[in-house]
Amino acid sequence: MKYNKKIHTTQNNNVTLEDVIISQNYADIIVPYLGDINIFLERYNAIYYQILNEIYAIIYIPLEQYYELLFTFAEFDINTIPTMFGPYSLDAIEDSGILDMHNHPFVPLRGRDVLIGLIDSGIDYRHPTFIYEDNTSKIVSIWDQTLTNGNSPMDFFYGSEYTNENINEALNSDDPLTIVPSVDETGHGTFLAGTAAGRYVAAEGFAGAAPDAEIIMVKLKRAKEYLLRDALIPEDNVVYQNTDIIQGLRYLVRKAMSLNKPLAICIGLGTNIGAHDGTSILEEFLTGVANYRTMAVVVASGNEADLGHHYEGNFPEGAIYQDVELNVAENEEGVIVQLWADTPDIYSIGIVSPMGEFLARFAPRIGQREEVELIIERSKVYVEYQLIEEKSGDEFIIVRIEDPTPGIWTIRVYGDVVVSYRYNMWIDREGWIRPATRFLSPSANTTVTIPSTSKVPITVGAYNHLDNSLFIGSGRGPTRDRRIKPELVAPGVNIIGPLPNNQYGIRTGTSIAAAQTAGASALLLEWSIVLGNEVNANTRTIKKTLMRGATRRGDITYPNNEWGYGALNVLNAFQILRGQL
C-alpha cells in the first residue's frame, strides 16, 4: 500500500498530498497549531497539511498565494519559512579508544543490536562495507524522499521506503537498482554511514566505529527552488530544508521504537541561519529526541571557524554607531546578513555601499520592513526588523542584498538601547557564497552552526589525530547564549571511508567526527541498554560519560571553545562506567 492519501482535495483538483510536498509550485509553511490546525487552514486558505507533533504542522499553499501573503502576515518569519542546511565534509578509531573496545578482553563492544540513524544524502547499499558474508545487508531500511515510485512510509506521504528484505533481494539480483533504485549522488551519507557503522574491510584497513550496528538511512530530498531563490543561494548547491530533516527524525524514532532497539543519530548538516542559541524549530525537535530513553543524538559543529562568516560585535561605550565592514566577492548573486542582539539591547542599522551610496538608518519597529533600490548601483537592499523574535525573544535584523556591487559594504550599527553591548552577525555558510565574501574583522568564536547549538545533543568538533592539532575549520563556541560547545572533538582530518561504486576515499570535516562519535555512542548504548547495565541511558548520560572520559592535554585549559571537554576516548569513558578509573 502506498500512503499518499488524497487529503483535502479541492472541488476540481485531484492533487495528492505527496504531489504538493515535492512540487516546486507549492510553498511550505511551518505553523504552531497547538491542536487546532483549522485556524491556520482558514487563515491561509490552505487545504494541504502534515502534522509533525502536538505543537507544529506544515501547511502547503500555491507559490503565487504564498508571495501574496508574504508581506501580509507578520508571522511569516525565520521560524515559519523552512530553514536550509548543507553537509559538512570535505587509523582514527584507534586514537579514539574505539578499536580497544572492539577487542576488549572482557566486554567487547561493537554495536550489536544497536541502530545508527543518519539523515543525509543517502547510502550506496551495494558497498561491501554494508554487506555481510552471506550477501545480506546490515541496512534495516532506507527512506528515500526523492523517489516516488515505491511505497512511502506509513503516515509520511512521500518518498519511497526500502526494507531490509527489499535490499537483500536487490543484492542477490543481476540488476540491484531495478529493485532498490536509491543511490547516493554526493557520497556524503555513504561516508558517514561507513565511518559510524561500516564492517571491517581488511584490504582497505577500514572499520567503522560500531561495525556490528545496523543502519537506518533517510535520504533527503533537495530544498525547493523558491527557498533557494529567496535565500539567494545558487541552485547548484546541495541544500536541504528543515521540514524534511524533521520528518527524517520522526521516521528514525518510529523505526527504532517499532524494533525496540536503542538508536544513535548522526547529523552532519548545518547552517548559519538562526539565533545560535538552541531555539530553532529543528533544534527543538533534536532536543526532544535527545531526551528519549535509549537514544543518543550527535551533531557536527560545522566547518565555519576560519571562513570569516561571523562578526562579534562589542558596541563602544558612548558611541552613536559602529561600522562593520563586509567584503563582497565579484559575481556574488546575493548576500544575506543577520544581526542578533542580546536582550534588552536594541540596535538599528544604516548601510553604505561600495560606491558610497548611503541608506539612512531604518528605525527599529516591530515588523518593520524596508526595500530600497540603489540609484547608482544595480543592487537592491531589503531590511527587516524583529524586535522580539518569537523563539529567542531577542532582536533580530536581516539584511538581504540582491546583485551586490563587489567591494566593501559597511553595515552601520546604531545603539538605540545598549546594556550588554553585545551583538552577533552572520552571513551564509561555506558553499552558498564565494570564498572572498567575508567580514573584514571576523571572529572565529561562536562559529558552531545550527543545529549544533542545540541544548541537549552532543556537539562534536574535529581534530587531526596524527599531529593532535585542531582542524582549522572546526566550529567553535560558545553559543550565542554562552554555553560551551562543542562538548568534544573527534578525528576528522584526512579520514578514510567508503564512497559510492565500491570506492574508498579521504575526507575531512566535522560531520566525519560526528559520525565517529555516533558510533562510539552506539557502543555505550550496547553496554547500557543491550547488556542491561544502565537501562535509562539517553543522550544526556552518554554525553556526560564521553565528557568525563575525554583525553585532555596538559597544555590546554578545559572546557574551552575549541576542544570542549577534550578529545573522544571511549575506552576511558567505558572504564569510568565500570568504576575502573
Describe the protein in words.
The chain is an alpha+beta fold and 581 residues long. The chain folds into three domains: 17-76, no CATH class; 92-304 and 452-578, Peptidase S8/S53 domain (Rossmann fold); 310-439, Jelly Rolls (Sandwich), CATH 2.60.120.1290. The chain has 13 helices and 28 strands. The strands form six sheets. Strands 5, 6, 7, 8, 10, 12, 24, 25 and 26 form a nine-stranded mixed sheet that branches. Helix 7 (188-197) packs parallel to helix 11 (510-530), helix 9 (242-259) packs parallel to helix 10 (281-290) and helix 12 (539-549) packs across helix 13 (570-577). The radius of gyration is 24 Å and the shape is globular. The active site is at residues 120, 188, 511. Belongs to the peptidase S8 family. Pfam families: Peptidase_S8. Keywords: Hydrolase, Protease, Serine protease.
What is the averaged pLDDT score? 93
The CATH homologous superfamily of the largest domain is termed Peptidase S8/S53 domain
Helix fraction bin: 10-25%
- CATH class term of the largest domain: Alpha Beta
Give the CATH architecture of the largest domain.
3-Layer(aba) Sandwich
What profile does the largest beta sheet have? 9 strands, mixed
Q: Regions with pLDDT < 50 over 5+ consecutive residues?
A: 1-12
Which term fits the overall shape?
globular
Number of E-type strands: 28
Radius of gyration, Cα only, in angstroms? 24 Å
Oligomeric organization of the protein chains: single chain
Instruction: Give the percentage of residues in beta strands.
Output: 25-35%
Q: DSSP helix count?
A: 13
Distance between the termini: 54 Å
CATH topology of the largest domain: Rossmann fold
Structural class: alpha+beta
How many domain regions? 3
